[in-house]
Amino acid sequence: MLWLTFSCEEFCEEQNRTAIVVNFYNANNAGYTVKNITIKAIENDSVLYPNKDIFRGTDFSQVLLPLNPAADMMRFSIKNDTLRADTITFHYIRHNGFISSECGCVTFADIQDEPETTLHSLTHVEVINRKVNTVSYRQGVFNEENIRIYY
């Protein structure tokens, strides 16, 4: 008896971490590009923007802020060269979801309350969509906006 074994390795093209999609706006509710932005996750002191390995520049009109799948809160520091840094805190409820057999599971989130912020350089922060479902970190424009930050 002859047994043939076939190996089928699927490749996951998605990330398995969710992120809050943030767009920047000016006082006239028009899209705004933040110049020379630096964004850090405060709990683990990691620099998210600008990440020279991923992004070519330091000017952004949209950013993705990854959520910690093991916590119910994330805090970020957002600063540009000319303005004082602000701290934004997001509280969220986690729930698991299935992406695919290749990619496995992911922790989605629902943003609770309004984000806490210091409002040094920002005028206000607005929640547009509380459901955090964006999984991919590929550079590009994401249509599912969660948060608007106004300068």
Compile the SSE list and pairings.
Layout: E1 19-25, E2 38-41, E3 46-49, E4 62-66, E5 73-79, E6 86-100, E7 104-117, E8 124-127, E9 131-132, E10 147-150
Parallel strand pairs: 1-10
Antiparallel strand pairs: 1-4, 2-3, 2-5, 5-6, 6-7, 7-9, 8-10
Walk me through the structure:
This protein is mainly β. The chain is built from no helices and ten strands. The strands form two sheets. It has a six-stranded antiparallel β-sheet, with no helix packed on it. Strands 4-1-10-8 form a four-stranded mixed β-sheet, with no helix packed on it. The N terminus is likely disordered.
Supply Rg. 18 Å
Q: Summarize the biggest pleated sheet.
A: 6 strands, antiparallel
Strand order of the largest sheet: 3-2-5-6-7-9
Number of strands: 10
Beta-strand fraction estimate:
35-45%
- The averaged pLDDT comes out at 84
Query: Which blocks of ≥5 consecutive residues have pLDDT under 50?
Result: 1-8
Summarize the structure.
The protein has 151 residues and is mainly beta. Helices cover 0% and strands 44% of the residues. The protein has strands spanning 19-25, 38-41, 46-49, 62-66, 73-79, 86-100, 104-117, 124-127, 131-132, 147-150.
